[in-house]
Amino acid sequence: MIELFIFVLICIIAGAAGAGMVPGRGTRRERGIFDAAIVLPAGFALISYAVYLLGSASLLYPSGIIALLAVLLLLFHRTFLFIKGPFPGWHVFDRGEKVLFFLAAFFPLVALSGALAPAIGTDSLCYHLGIPKKFVLQHGIGFIPYTMNSLYPFFMEMLFTLGIVLKNAVLAKLFHWGMGVLLASCVYFFTREVSDRKTGLLAALLVMSSPGIFNEMVYAYVDVGLSLYAALSVFLLILWMQKGRGSLRYLVFSGLFLGVCFSIKYLAFYAAVPMAAVLIWHLVREQGKTGMARPLAAFFLPCAAVSFFWYLKSYIVLGDPVFPVLSGFLRTPVAFDVGHHFDMGMGKGIVDLLRLPWDLAVHPSRFGGRGSQVGIQYFALLPFLVFGFFSGKSWFRRLAFIAAGYVAIWFFLVQRDRFLYPVLPVFAVLISYSVHVLFSGERKRQRVFSFLAVLLLTGAFIFNAGICVYHNRHNYRVTLGLETRDAYLKRWVTNYRMAKFVNTHLPEDAKILGTGIYKVYYFDRWIVREGLFEMWEGYREKYKTAEDMREYLKSNGFTHVIYKKINDEPVPGHVKLIVDKKEPLFTSGPVQNPEKPQKEQFFLYEI
User: 3-state secondary structure string, 546-601?
Assistant: First the structure.
């Protein structure tokens, strides 16, 4: 639980830093919403970029991170009480609002049990945590040879790096869990601004009850963080367009947060296109061509300022600013095939578009796999959007256009369900406001629809609550201390026993070639994935004898090799050459992979 305590302290520092960065405020009501929506995310952004600068200077040591936090504490000590807005007491909430609050809080509280458990996610142990672990091992941030992702936009991974330096992967995971809580908060405050508290709480519940959101909150992934900053960017853009918001600070922060999105994932492009279209259309209608320059600069310059260096660095090092997306078209050291992503989903025709809500709800495996479903509540309540359009609100139409534009780009590019997460907060606002309009009517027909909406919401909540509890079923014992960390990891990370042996018995300067090794985080020695090494070097075709192959690997600094055997498959030819006439130093397994119907066995050899 010490990780939770450290996380709270970092949140306090982030909040103080964010409050110090926020410019002059407006009215008292604006202050509360502006602070609540911006302060903590802005503070986390400052910390993330500061960690990047620290790592670029090769200062990734516990003392360096502590010094960084101490400097922030010194600079922003006067803004510790960073929430200055008019937050009403619990007594002002009526019974329905209290019920919605507790329902919305249920999902992050259950997910906290998973966030506090040791890290086991494949992608997180592979590169979301695996690459930051290598940054920590070398005490600096830069391109990691024989990887395809160490030059990705790594905003969230900088926070993970901080967590690893200070404590461990659990602290890193808490940053992503916290992004989910902040996402629900920003959805609530924006919806409260354009409607009322109850509608805001319903919107927060819709977001928090999305299986993809609460399932990802327990892992050191990036999609919930991307959803938070995308939602903030969209909501602040809409608020700037509202009457009486002449100040450009909303637009500046909208651009800054969009830049953070580009610093998290290439997927930010999906949101940037419809947002830019809405902004330009608004400026043409309201201010004419002569008044467009200043607002456009206020939006796009901050966006570029906080994100361009990720892409410039990738271009300088590898010749592809979005490596490996364009590696097949540009002159890069190695070309990675990313075409398989475009084959996901159910097709790209008109009929497929019309069937999309049904297919996403009924066939989620076609769009990405287990645990990443969007949530049946969106599809069940989608028809109620018609009531929102009848309200005649300009902000509603603008949000709807941005959501539709995002989904259209997603539909024609990569139909992966978790790529829809950034648009879920917008749909939550649209749907919750539409339900609010429905309940505001007095006609008998509307009362019938209101009953149907409540019925659908109740059914969706019960269904998703069951998924949430079930998904975290293996975390409760280890989080409560009823199961040891080692026992948990031996059960869920098949190469954990091998990692423990390597960390204990191999010298610190050992360099390992790992065949079939993806979850590299728990290895404290430098390990290179053999499949990626082959893509970069093509050594299997160059060296055909055991002696030549081993000499080549030794010349590249490799001292050991780990081979993973699945079930009773034969040993691949290149592995036979590497381990020719050698006895394994250590054998681990066979271990049943809990995620796949296969047993895995690991062999460690000295080259």
Answer: HHHHHHHHHHCCCCEEEEEEECCCCCCHHHHHHCCCCCCCEEEEEEECCCCCCEEE
Model pLDDT, residue 329: 81
Average of per-residue pLDDT values in the chain: 90
| Distance in angstroms (rounded) separating the CA atoms of residues 553 and 560 | 9
Q: Please name the residue that has the structure tokens 């066979």.
A: 590
The H or E element containing residue 450 is helix 444-471
Distance in Å from the first CA to the final CA of the chain = 41
pTM: predicted TM-score of the whole model, two decimal places: 0.94
Q: Determine contact, residues 566/516, Cβ cutoff 8 Å.
A: yes
Using H for helix, E for strand and C for coil, what is the string for 95-147? HHHHHHHHHHHHHHHHHHHHHCCCCCCHHHHHHHCHHHHHHHHHCCCCCCCCC
Q: Give residue 73's identity as a one-letter amino acid code.
A: L
For 50-75, write each residue's pLDDT tens digit: 999 999 999 999 999 999 999 999 98
Reference 19, options 68, 89, 88, 77; nearest CA is: 77
User: CA-CA distance, 131 to 143, in Å (whole number)?
Assistant: 10
Question: pLDDT tens, 115-132?
Answer: 999 999 999 999 999 999
Nearby residues of 217 by Cβ (< 8 Å), 6 or more positions away? 108, 111, 114, 115, 176, 177, 179, 180, 224
Backbone angles phi, psi at 93, to 5 degrees: -80, 135
> What are the pLDDT digits (tens) for 547-572?
999 999 999 999 999 999 999 888 99
